Sequence to fold (393 residues):
Amino acid sequence: MSIKSFHPPQRVLMGPGPSDVSPRVLEAMSRPTIGHLDPMFVSMMDEMKALLKYAFQTENELTMPVSAPGSAGMETCFVNLVEPGDKVIVCQNGVFGGRMKENVERCGGIAVMVQDEWGRAVDPQKLEDALKANPDTKVVAFVHAETSTGALSDAKTLVEVAHRHGCLVIVDAVTSLVGSPLKVDEWEIDAIYSGTQKCLSCTPGLSPVSFSAKALEKIKNRKTRVQSWFMDLNLVMGYWGGSTKRAYHHTAPINALYGLHEALVMLQEEGLQDSWARHQKNHLALRAGLEAMGLNFVVPEADRLPQLNAITVPQGVDEAAVRNLLLSDYQLEIGAGLGAMAGKVWRIGLMGHASNPRNVLLCLSALDDVLGRMKAPIRRGVAVDAANAKLAG
Fold:
């Protein structure tokens, strides 16, 4: 057997993640590896914490990247804040609310589900009603930006409802961080997690998290030990804490953290509000082109997530065949539907480094060609002009 080095093709990643990685991030990751307790690395860790605080808009002392993907960030929040017997209300409007339920139950908690239609925002009144019916609830959990559907919920209002009933709040911001307005301190979010592979323009494998003082108080005063040794924040804080003396917990993914540091430096250079505005502007151009073509969004405009666009597959079109042709003919990746939406939608991402006018126009032009070849019921030759008009406006 003679296996040679792997050289991946150059793709344009416009699916639900990972998104395109900035060349600056890839270059940063190629720099020399140093020890995870090296004073220079510890100094970089402090810079990264400060940059993550900016991204999350928080002063939370415990703001750091978990050394694993966004799913581990989710689990870190649940295993630290949910104890056996705790009642947790989980708002579900897509696939990832279901994963929250799974986490609650594996922690020994009792999950009370508040269901909303897939493709719609979480209804604050339904949460209010559930909290009144379950006054012993300890935690409320919801997804800010549901990646499976492209729906954006009103996190500020949902947190206010939960706090009125004395609950801590866990928020999934995997797809929303730096792509949509998110203000952890102003909205008083207790625990939040995200991922590096979406709007941060970084590689997969790290999960930024942030915990409020109230959440830390709960963690420090648990009646039971955290079931996960690796994710126990009482231990992790010794490594990511504020003191100059760091206690060894695990060998951090050093070069991956170089990449995240560079991505956050780039965010600082662009400006957080400008990042939010860029994602919105490119979404509006993509929307103009798709609607000119005759394609429809799954999510109503008021609930729509700019960086993840769920599009209904036209009648009679083989959605997988379209994705395969985009990949083979244009090196362009878009996403399929998940769960109840499998086979019914495409998910087009405009996240991070991939959120730019060139990608918007490439995607529209490629869809026009591929759908035209398939004799799909679309209006041909109008999408790119519509998007260009929006970009110029």
Summary: Residues 272-293 form the longest helix (22 residues).
